[in-house]
UniProtKB/TrEMBL annotation:
Short name of one Pfam family: HAD_2
Name of the protein: MTA/SAH nucleosidase
SUPFAM superfamilies hit by this protein: HAD-like
A GO CC term attached to the entry: cytosol
Molecular function in Gene Ontology: phosphoglycolate phosphatase activity
Upper taxonomic lineage: Bacteria, Bacillati, Bacillota, Bacilli, Bacillales
Any GO BP: DNA repair
Gene3D superfamilies, per the entry: HAD superfamily/HAD-like, Putative phosphatase, domain 2
Gene this protein is translated from: pfs
């Protein structure tokens, strides 16, 4: 990371969850297989489980769009049942699987909060999943708000971030995420975008348009210290 002294100091930082704070594959890979095993048991799906890589490549999308890509030939009813199973197995998995945040997440968030930064999450995931991850890893108390498409029924990350900014009276924020939807949400809401290049779920152009890219979460603190009002 090359420090750019021109970045404005944020009053708030908004984080994506999957691929930004949470090392999602530590939960999603085992759960992915459980979902399709159950769908086969319920006679709702036949054939092999779709590749793990396909599911991981969909991180950051709304659930309805994920299933259209992962099981495009299945019905809407099957997609909705997959929603239910995914949430059920993810919530159980947070208690039983050794899931992980990215290195330095809890410590960096704590230090940013100590410096007076208001912290938020904006995720395209389901409400109980987003809150469950934060609670399972002991970081929920650090956030002023945990916003999810599942809770607010927003059609895009851009809409979700606008709702968050308006509700909390935030005018100067950093949007931190690993997908093009995060870049779009930040830019369309006229905020600074910090692209997380360490997850590796997207293609090379995924973070195009970010103001700066970071290769580890801890770099955020240094970036904040070098920003200015």
């Amino acid at each position: 990371m090359t420090i750019q002294p021109g970045l404005p100091k944020p009053e708030a930082i908004i984080f994506d969850m999957d691929g930004t704070l949470f090392k999602t594959e530590t939960l999603l890979i085992p759960v992915h297989h459980q979902v399709f095993e159950q769908l086969r048991l319920e006679k709702l799906y036949e054939g092999a489980t779709p590749p793990e890589e396909l599911m991981l490549s969909c991180l950051g999308m709304l659930l309805e769009d994920i299933w259209k890509k992962v099981i495009p030939d299945s019905s809407e009813a099957v997609h909705r049942r997959a929603d239910e199973l995914l949430l059920e197995f993810e919530l159980a998995g947070l208690k039983t699987h050794p899931t992980e945040l990215y290195p330095g997440v809890a410590d960096t968030l704590t230090k940013l909060k100590q410096r007076g930064v208001r912290l938020f999450v904006a995720s395209n995931g389901l409400e109980h999943y987003v809150k469950g991850v934060a609670e399972a890893h002991g970081i929920a108390h650090l956030f002023e708000g945990l916003y999810s498409a599942g809770q607010y029924q927003t059609a895009s990350k851009t809409e979700l971030v606008k709702l968050l900014l308006d509700r909390h009276g935030v005018s100067r924020a950093w949007m931190v995420g690993d997908r093009s939807s995060d870049v779009e949400a930040g830019k369309q809401n006229h905020q600074t975008v910090i692209g997380c290049a360490y997850a590796g779920f997207g293609h090379d152009q995924e973070l195009e348009g970010s103001d700066i890219l970071i290769s580890s979460f801890e770099e955020l603190l240094e970036l904040f210290e070098h920003s200015h009002l």
